[in-house]
Amino acid sequence: MYFLTGWPRRLLCPLKSEEEPFYIQPSTQRFYFAVLSETQLSIWFSRPSVLIVSYIESAKAAAQFGSYQCAEWKPDDSMIAVASNGYILLFDVLGGQEDKYLYEAVYPKGSPRVKVTPGYKQEQCAPALTLEMKKPVDLEAPITSLQSLQDDLLVCTADGYLHVLHWDGLGSNGRKAISLTTIPFSLDLQSARGGPSLDLDKVHIKCMEYCVTLDGFAAVLSDGRLGFITPLGNTVTADQLQGVWAADVMDGTCVAVNNKYRLMAFGCASGTVLVYMIDTTTGSMQLSHKLELTPKHYPDIYNKTGPVKLIRWSPDYSVVMVTWECGGLSLWSVFGAQLICTLGEDFAYRSDGTKKEPIKISSMSWGAEGYHLWVVPKLNEQMADPPAPCSPPRVGILQFHFIKSALTVNPCTSNQEQVLLHGEDRLYLTCGDPAQTHNYNNTNGGGGGGGPQDGSPLHSPPGHNAALSQGLSTLLGHKHWHVIQVRALLLWRRWFAAIDSAGQCMAVAGRRGFAHYSLYSRKWKLFGNITQEQNMTVTGGLAWWKDFVVVACYNFIDQQEELRLYLRSSNLDNAFASVTRLPADTLLINVFRDMVILFRADCSICLYSLERRNSGPNPSASVELLQEVSMSRYIPHPALVVSVTLTSVRTETGITLKAPQQACVAESIMLNLAGQLIMLQRDRSGPQLRDKDTPPNNKKLLSFCPPVVLAQCVENVWTTCRSNRKKRHLLEALWLSCGEAGMKVWLPLFPRDHRKPHSFLSRRIMLPFHINIYPLAVLFEDALVLGASNETVLYDGLQGGGCGGAASPSEPLEALFPYCTVERTSQIYLHHILRQLLVRNLGEQALLLAQSCAGLPYFPHVMELMVHVVLEEEATSREPIPDPLLPTVAKFITEFPLFLQTIVHCARKTEYALWNYLFAAVGNPKDLFEECLMAQDLDTAASYLIILQNMEVPAVSRQHATLLFNTALEQGKWDLCRHMIRFLKAIGSGEMDTPPPTPSTQEPSSTGGFEFFRNRSISLSQSADCITTGKFNLQKTFSMPTGPSSKGREVECAENMYIDLMLWRHARHLLEQVRLRDLGCFSAQLGFELIGWLCRERNRVARVEDFVGALKTLHRDFLWPFPVLPAGSLSSPLKNGRCRAFFDPKVHLNCGTIVVL
């Protein structure tokens, strides 16, 4: 979801100072950053990242107030509070004059946007600010934490008090103190009265943060306990506070809250981060999940990180960054999927294998919109000394660069099948060459409505085989990204981006207006009238519907929220737009077929129908309100809604293969409420009318049932509006990303062969599975998950630039950190779903799903993965498995013709120690080898021969190798024949080795009900007898001399004789059938000495008995034409009582022998 890119950037303070920064705090909007050193307060601007103003304490004031500790901004950025040795130092942040800027952007002469673009200075120029200190406040105790409220500043001190200071008035009326001992703490709010309570004597709050959506304070106490304090009224007073604490936790170190998902992340001394939620029923703290390094991925460092030092949620609350006392950074998604960690791989090791010490971090903060992470490194003991002459510049501030998924900004992109990433000033898109698919996309319009052709570029209508043939190559054919540089004037605060379903057009909205970009023409389309652009701002995002851009925006002229549709091919002008007024602000937007769904700030959901009209010279769209649903009873705060989606998913009965109504109409609304996936389904409990019985103008939409919670800890949701009768399982499913729990799919279950489903069976099932990548898009019909991953490249050119050998923050960044790139990744998920269905005894559904995907090019690999994963888990388990799954998987694979290839490929990719367990479940490898011979699959049989070589004695291997060698000779598989010759020669050296015998298929514990393996086997003795002559027996053994010096030579001679006998026999077989062409190929391919052998056989097999038949066979074999006599010369073959002789110059008959000249 978030990915590192490039190297970090070092920001150096232009002012000379011996003090190094140690603390950084962003303003509410993250436009400014307050940076503290011991006696200095600096204000930095976010973009561009420059120093604006710096306040240096005088020596007298520094002696009185001591060193600075921490800082906090007032919500409107007009004041800064700095904690210093028991004092609160308040600073007014005063802005300069309206046209006074510290840094201004310089444009070339004649650039139009300097003059005509309103507000360009506010967007790209750093303002000039001044700091003015007010009267300090003495709290007479060390300060441990600062927390800014709307009008108040909450200060925690080491004497156990909470001081509430008013930002504007600090007299007797603007200050009050609350003792922590007066706040009752309990395990939940229900037992608050009369229940067990904490003894808070000599305890104070070490760290605290306010959560807006929970309306309370998450706190870490000095004794390590974790708590949550909530005000029972509207004010923070002693008698209005109530606290709950988490049981069995005594090592808390720090805390950070997530306002969007209502989570509290507590760092612990053990190095683990505990993420808690508040139970809405009891008010107790419940553990949601943990963030911790695992010994599997970090065996050397997972238990040596030290206590958690800092936790920082990103501005969009989708990821969290963690650092420890021993250093390092680790990035997790909101529900625990690890994305980045600098304690392993190239971050922790140099190219020569030596280990780097992780950089210890003193403070860190996310920049605006999460594209930067500002990090203040901690100075080690060496760097604390004055800098040496050879030292590089001081540490300064490190700025890490990130790109993130568009799902974090505009959730409506989840219904697309492309991966779209946001950078600070550019977009990264995964798709094929747009020039190849331009014609196809123009014919389809690329929207969200219509049939399958309106969906992914992977699925074209029947008339576009060329576009369909691109298939997976369009999205998976190459690794590079399409990088689109976004207009500078669009890059302000939060900006949106959306791509059409064909992956060819991009719409981008920023501070004012929007624009769209064509990947085919590589051109932007902008508003022709800049006034129209400046009079609107996109509020709820934007989406594509067919060839229209759907925008939820605010009109500054009319002061009205509006829904607008702009045609892609027309000029970007309001004259060509379809405008619909909205009653409230729009927060989220999404499109489903010919409908658009809006989530508004009043917690209501509105459904609008979209219709294209071609009446005028330019096509237009009409918008009509269909339905409005109020969700105020279920949503405590509108900011908690992560995404809203209109789908065709439903749970009611009537889902059959005969009447696929799925993906046709909007059946339900999916709402991601702070990680809870809520479903509102249409109420079909009453009498239903068929669509053809309802007049077109009198269709009334059904109301929705009360909401139902489908899943917890949901980060992203994917669904599609396309339909495909052959792959209904995949297209009608609901796909969820759930953090550390992996992915989940809500899969429909269909009866087979049009049978009536059982009333007691569920129509859908939720299946969890784990994948190795973070999912960003789902290719529904191709059974693939698309994602992105960080790749690193070490650069040693400047390694060791510092004076010392140990790593330090002042070393060149190229030596401290590898260069980070972002690569496209994909992963197959079908084998996970098939396995989960088999575990739940839903083999019939698994078979239907697998048969629908059997045409995928990687379907054999899916089968191998399923066998391999189950085999690894069961065969390496330390405890006995009461109900093993491997026999069921083996029986399932036998339903497909690739069964034999799947087993042998899986075996060859698995350790030898696991073969016994594998073949005890799937059958004896000798029987499987014979099945390959029966099916004429010689390449697979050769793979089984390698298995037999390792599991059987050499005599058995030679016997089966002989069978395969003879079959390969007969079919002319010359490459395989050469391999078999080398194989037979190598067997003799292992004659004395006796590996473990092949497991029997008759063990009842593992192979019960698998008699079909034996029934399908052929008799090995019969096969051997069929190819054995009277003088040659495949079971022949050779006497081996006992002398050690002659043993190797005797074995080699015996093996060569054994092979020569088989070659001679095949040559005689070919000559008997007068297959001289095959005999020549046989000799040329295998180096057979044909001339000498023919001389020896001239009076035996090479003697011709039927000259006429041999001659005809020779003509047919070499495709020679038979001689044709002229019509005038046709007469009896007997002339003058004698037979006319015919002589072919190419064949000479000599002594009854045919010789090729």
TrEMBL record:
| GO-annotated biological processes | intracellular protein transport; retrograde transport, endosome to Golgi
Which SUPFAM superfamilies does this entry report, sorted A to Z? WD40 repeat-like
Q: Where is the RIC1 C-terminal alpha solenoid region domain positioned along the sequence? A: 831-989
An annotated GO cellular component of this protein is: Golgi membrane
Which keywords, in A-to-Z order, does the entry hold?
Membrane
The annotated region (Disordered) lies at: 439-463
Tell me the compartments it is located in. Membrane
* Ranges of compositional bias, category Gly residues: 444-453
Database matches in Pfam families: Beta-prop_RIC1_2nd, RIC1
Task: Tell me, in one coarse class, where this protein mainly resides.
Answer: membrane
Q: Which InterPro entries did the record assign?
A: Ric1, RIC1_C, WD40/YVTN_repeat-like_dom_sf, WD40_repeat_dom_sf
What's the protein called, per UniProt? Protein RIC1 homolog
Q: Which organism is it from?
A: Gadus morhua (Atlantic cod)
Gene label: ric1
